[in-house]
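Hey,
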Amino acid sequence: MIRQASGGSREAFLRDIRSSRCASQIAGSRVGASLRRLPVGVGMRRERNMIYTVKVDVKEIENRIVECKVRNHVVRVDQPKEFGADDTAPTPPEMLAISLGSCVVSTIQFIAAQRNLDVGNIEVSVEGSIDFSRAMGVSDRERAGFGALKVGIRFDSGMASREKEDFIKTVFECGASIDNIRNATPVTCEILE
């Protein structure tokens, strides 16, 4: 949603997004129509950059189940039974892979809408392995998270192979979760009282 900065307007916001590198052809698309309908006041501030602040609250529920709240959504995270959990939901690393895959699909949809491209039947697979040696205290030679992630992408369109490659390059330049996973993101930690 859009919160107007002082002196800002919905029209100015739409003008900005239409002229951005990742949103150059939004005007007549379904995305443009959706943005025109967005209510003002929640989630996004219109400033020089278009800032969308995300706040997630996470708490322990029972056994190893964790409940995560973001806006008006609730997502649960769990661990496999082999780790003493109930296996009722994806693990945190699986949620990371889900975030990456869903960001690829969403960004393909968004960029295709901006460019008025006919893209459909989008399928993405994300695969990676984690060495639990560090978590189990066996070895600290390998990183604790994924060593690498492989993303497979399939979609229908009238694009030639080279056009698809250029299109996916743009997707990987514009997707927020893609960027956070591909590039180091500073993380700070504080103990709350």
